[in-house]
Amino acid sequence: MLKLFFKIMDLDRRWIFLMVAVIVTIPLFIPSNPPIVPDRPVQELYNFIDALPEGTPIMICFDYSPDSLAELNPMGRALVRHAFSKNLRVIGLALAWPAASGLGLEIISSSAEEYGKIEGVDWAYFGYKIGYSQIVIGMGKNIAQTVQEDHKGLSLNNMEMFKEIKNYDDIGIVIDLAAGGSLGLFVTYVNTMYNRPVSTGVTAVMAADYYPYLQSGQIIGMLNGLKGAADYEKLVNRKGLATRGMASQNWAHIMIIILIVLGNISFLLTKKQQSKQ
Amino acid sequence: MGFWSVLGTLVAAVFTLAIFSFLYKDNPFYKAAEHIMIGVSVGYGLAQLYHLGFKPYLWNPVFKEAQYELLIPAAIGMLYFGFLHPKTRWLIRIPIALFMGIGSGFSIAPSMQAAIYTQLQATIIPLWQHGLTFGEALSNILIVVGVFTAIIYFFFSWKHKGVIGGLAKAGIYFLMIGFGASFGLTVMGRISLLIGRVIFLFQDLPKVIIGIF
Amino acid sequence: MKRSLPLAIVFIGGIIYFFAYFTPHYFSEYILQQKILVDWLKILGLFAFVIGLYSLIHLHATKIKRKVDNWQYSVMTLTGLTIMFIFGILVPEKFGGGIDQGSIYDWIFMNVQVPLQATMFSLLAFYITSAAFRAFKARSVEATCLLIAATIVMLGRVPLGESIRSATKGFLDFPLWTQWILDVPNMATKRAITFGVALGMIATSLKIMFGIERSWLGGSE
């Protein structure tokens, strides 16, 4: 019996890969309604955006590449939908990765179509802007002068929207959807230097690092990984990719915990055998 | 669904499977997909840079708005090309020096304020006062103790012996709990990325295939 | 000259911009911060990209020229780059060129680059599971702390945690425990690390400004 157990423990890792694939796939075919209760940081961000007066612009910076879109795209979509449903205006841009340019545009333009919002009046998209910290610093002084043109090459000075939006002072909140260290830049400059509200949606891998900023109030709320996205989808009452993925996430975690327990049993048994010998 | 949309989904599926084939073992399909990815992503960045960087930052202001002073940073930027020849390679130090000097000097004060003063201020919290529940007070005490002991652990100017050793040991436990939380979240993040691809392969792709027939 | 000029630029630039941050004068606000720091440096950044591009092309072109092992893959890299360059920059918009939605460039991005990159990183799910199974062992008290915290967080972040909370009427409250772990011990340690990182960055910035740290100059000349 013990031999069989050890044999199982010594399985080729490709069997584990197969188990992961099966465990993640099967829940997608079983209709379920997993309970999703929004976290406190998600609720805080939702409440802040919800309380902004109609017409207030919010800025969303898409700082991720397709590597992390499974977690961050649903966040972006839920945030933009929330903003448009509250008649807030949305400004989008990408600073950290050129590849985020297309992702952010797709999210904002498709959501704008859903809510009948007009580009240049209700929303604007700058695309990828090289310069990173220079752009973040410059937008605090003058957005139009810093960014100059939108993703279509239209001058911001000729846009209806930017007649009354000069810098961060005219923006309700700046949200950084980040898969890297870009949030530090927003906290340092937008929040500390210009004293404007900042929030974030981050990949689960990085989320633990940003709790100090949450506790100190330097960021208002935070969306943490796929769960954060699913929580926001729940709050805006629009089930999306994140909610669809939570059942698979559930089963994958159960499997990993079982594997960790089995691994530890095997470790203890081996240790016991070794001490006997 | 249009022809290009269907074709796009099928192309995406082929590339997705090519990458997944690596899980069995390294193979030419994976290698091909990996190399195409590098080329396409650099090409994507290049075109973004041209349309959303070069044109609005330099070309249009200089040639349409006569902002000739922008030729100064362009000339300094051209020094990057110095690296093409061993004799002029040192010239790239000049634009790098400008970035480093200006960046370092300007970021010191706000970084200190954001990452040190404000964080320090947020650690000075009431440990016991009217209105705090026992749980809240305990959490506040643990925050202060956790920050202090974790700093002690990273402080190597004194030997970790006696009181310092004890505090550092407590710091290790806090750090391990913190790293455990990070690990738990990392597992979650990695699985989420897979879920995104599985949804594409088993939910979005079949819809497109059914649509063809 | 080759070393002293860049060192002088770093020193003077660093000192001027350190004080510029505190100076609410037109010259500081407009010329130093808006014009030079923002408008000029972002132009410099454009040229920095060229180095990366050149290195990539040079590396793969050399592989092809020398017909090293697997040189065929380098052809694929350069083909991908060239196609994106042609459709993104050279082909006019009326023929499907440009970078807007609906362009060929955008089609390739959405259907080639996005699935490739997203799938590449999703492979990590398999490896982290295998690693958790093989290496995540309670070998010591410290490792056990890590293991327990990770398990609580893994349970607390998925719907199962909510189901257990409901089933046990709040007795086993994994979501609450997860939030507490993230808010208290995790936050405290990450703050300590933040202090260390920030102080290290500031010290390095000062060392660069004052010419003590010179590794960025590269080479010996």
Summed up:
Chain B has 213 residues and is mainly α.
Unreliable spans of chain A: none
Largest sheet of chain B: none
Could you name the ranges of chain B where pLDDT drops below 50 across 5 or more consecutive residues? none
What is the straight-line distance between the termini of chain B? 12 Å
Query: What would CATH call the class of the largest domain in chain A?
Result: Alpha Beta
Got a strand count of chain A?
6
Radius of gyration of chain B: 28 Å
Number of helices of chain A: 12
Strand residues, percent of chain B: under 5%
- Shape annotation of chain A: elongated
Q: Helicity range of the residues of chain A?
A: 40-55%
Number of strands of chain B: 0
**Strand content of the residues of chain A, in percent?**
5-15%
Overall geometry of chain B comes to extended
Query: Any idea of the CATH topology of the largest domain in chain A?
Result: Rossmann fold
Largest interface: B-C, 114 and 128 residues
**Share in helix of chain B:** over 70%
Domain count of chain A: the total is 2
- The computed structural class of chain A is alpha/beta
**Topology order of chain A in helix (H) and strand (E) letters:** HHHEHEHEHHEHEHHEHH
What does this structure look like?
The complex is a heterotrimer of chains A (277), B (213) and C (221). Chain A has 277 residues and is of the alpha/beta class. Chain A has twelve helices and six strands. In chain A, strands 3-2-1-4-5-6 form a six-stranded parallel sheet, with helices on both faces. Chain B is an all-alpha fold and 213 residues long. The two termini of chain B are 12 Å apart. Chain C is extended, with a radius of gyration of 27 Å. The chains are: A alpha/beta (277), B mainly alpha (213), C mainly alpha (221). Chains in contact: A-B, A-C, B-C.
